[in-house]
Design goal:
This protein is α/β, with parallel strands linked by helices. The chain contains 13 helices and twelve strands. The strands form two sheets. A six-stranded parallel sheet has the order 2-1-3-4-5-6, with helices on both faces. It has a six-stranded parallel sheet with strand order 9-8-7-10-11-12, with helices on both faces. It is globular.
Amino acid sequence: MEPMNIVQIATGLIPIPPNGWGAVERIVWMYKNRLERLGHHVDIQYINQVQKMEGQIVHAHLANLALECRDKGIPYIYSLHDHHVEWYGKGSWVYNQNLEAIKGSIISFTHAEYYVDFFNETDKLFYLSHGADTEFLTPSAEPLKEHKLLMLANNGLAGDSGFDRKGFRYGVEAAKRLNLPITVVGTDNNLAFFQAHPDLLEYKNLTLVADNPTDENTRHLYQTHSIFLHPSMLEAGHPNLTLLEAASSCLSIVGTCKASIKIPGMYLIDKPTTEAVVDGIVLAMDGYEKDRQEMLAVRDRYDWMNVCKTLEKFYQNVLKINEGYNSEKTRQLYVQTYNSVINE
């Protein structure tokens, strides 16, 4: 296979690689890391640096940057990461902007399978799973002494820091009912959430960490807790990054995930409620040792290398399109690639 020249467009919001929060930036960095291991040349460039070049793959991760590529005449691939498209709904400005970015792309990716049907005005959108750095996020080697709950998220929605998108209330209330310690971790934005919900701070076994933890600190948190809680009501990734990180670290999981991928050791809840989280935690504690062995056996499948091998196939087909494929052949080529990936 010939090495490809690939440009990942930086968001311009957070440095890459991020050492702390920054989901899209982490995705971009892991794409670069694993694709380079596969033998390709990958640059991370700001939009003003991107130039149209023959035989080059350009991958945008924000709708406005994708549309700027279009306006500059640069063919691009687009990844949709924005949960606001679902929150505001079809016909909203954020939905329409993302739809325009998808339609203007060579091909686009969503990380939530049901978004493919949600954006039914286009046939250019395909599902691509998230991954985890399984080399870095290794399970604890220490025997379990006590169950400790962990929530790792940046709460809020659409500028409202008090909106409980991530289900912090359900997690803390469930911990309180079961008298279990719980750690809630994220950025300082979470402080604003708890200021809006001060009753949650009354639980004596709650530890709040809102210091935008480094990668090393995050790994330590995964290794010193046993059950990960994710009763989220809205995500653009199913599974999202923290679910796969927790699975890579072999924590039992209680939460939501609308995906065909099944994660051993995860106890799914259909609708986030305190009762559902309590029930899930009880099941996770009862099945902990068995679940952990199953999770250890499959954790490598979540690695970004597997994701990037799939991405590599789509990139290769993008270069084939430049050799003269018409639109129907293009569509069939991607459908065949997608089907071959999910059947592997």
